[in-house]
Write a structure and sequence with these properties.
This protein has 168 residues and is α+β, with helices and mostly antiparallel strands. A 3-stranded antiparallel β-sheet has the order 3-2-5, with no helix packed on it. A hairpin with a 2-residue loop joins strand 2 and strand 3. The longest helix is centred in the last third of the chain and has 30 residues.
Length: 168
C-alpha cells in the first residue's frame, strides 16, 4: 500500500536514514510505493535532545528504526537503556511491555509511537516527584516546620535560607 507524505515548506523528514528537506516555497507531496523507514520532523529526536532516560530510549529506538545496517548495535543499546528505565520507573511496565512487543515483531515505528508515551510518562513521574519534593521542602517561616517534617526535624539549612531571604 502506498504512503502519501506531505512535507511543508522548510520541514524535514528522514527517509531510510537520509534527511530530506523541502526547500521549495510550498508544501510538496511524495508517494512512497514500497516500504521505507520514514520519520517526520515532529517525530525526529536529535542526539543533543536525548537528555532524559526516556528520551535516550526513544533515540536508541529511532536509530534501530532508521539504520538497519547497524540494528544489532542499536538494539543492544536500546535494551540496556529500556531495562535501566524500567528498573528506575516500574510504573512504566505496561508501556515498556508494549514497546518491547513491537520491537519483538520488528514494528519499529509502532515502538517509537509507544516510546513517545514513555517520554510523557516520565514527564508525569518527574512532575509528581517535583511536587512531592516541593511539599517536603516547603518550610513555614513562622514555625520553622516543614510540611514534610515527619518527626525527623526540619532541615535547618532550608530554614536558615528562607529566614535570610525573608530578612529574619
Amino acid at each position: 500500500m502506498a504512503l502519501v507524505i506531505h512535507i511543508k515548506k522548510d520541514q524535514q523528514i528522514i527517509l531510510n536514514g537520509a534527511v530530506v528537506e523541502n526547500a521549495s516555497g510550498k508544501t510538496i507531496s511524495l508517494i512512497l510505493k514500497n516500504e521505507a523507514a520514514v520519520l517526520r520532523s515532529e517525530d525526529i529526536l536529535a542526539p543533543d535532545d536525548a537528555v532524559t532516560p526516556a528520551s535516550r530510549v526513544y533515540y536508541a529506538l529511532q536509530c534501530v528504526y532508521l539504520f538497519p545496517e547497524r540494528r544489532g548495535a542499536h538494539l543492544r543499546t536500546f535494551n540496556e537503556l529500556v531495562a535501566s528505565y524500567l528498573h528506575a520507573a516500574p510504573s512504566a511496565r505496561s508501556i515498556v511491555a508494549a514497546i518491547l512487543a513491537a520491537v519483538e515483531n520488528e514494528q519499529y515505528y509502532a515502538a517509537l509511537k509507544k516510546a513517545q508515551e514513555l517520554i510523557k510518562h516520565e514527564g508525569k513521574v518527574l512532575t509528581h516527584a517535583q511536587h512531592q519534593l516541593d511539599k517536603e521542602l516547603h518550610v513555614d517561616a513562622a514555625t520553622g516546620k516543614s510540611e514534610g517534617d515527619r518527626g525527623l526535624g526540619a532541615d535547618a539549612g532550608c530554614i536558615a535560607l528562607e529566614r535570610r531571604a525573608g530578612g529574619q
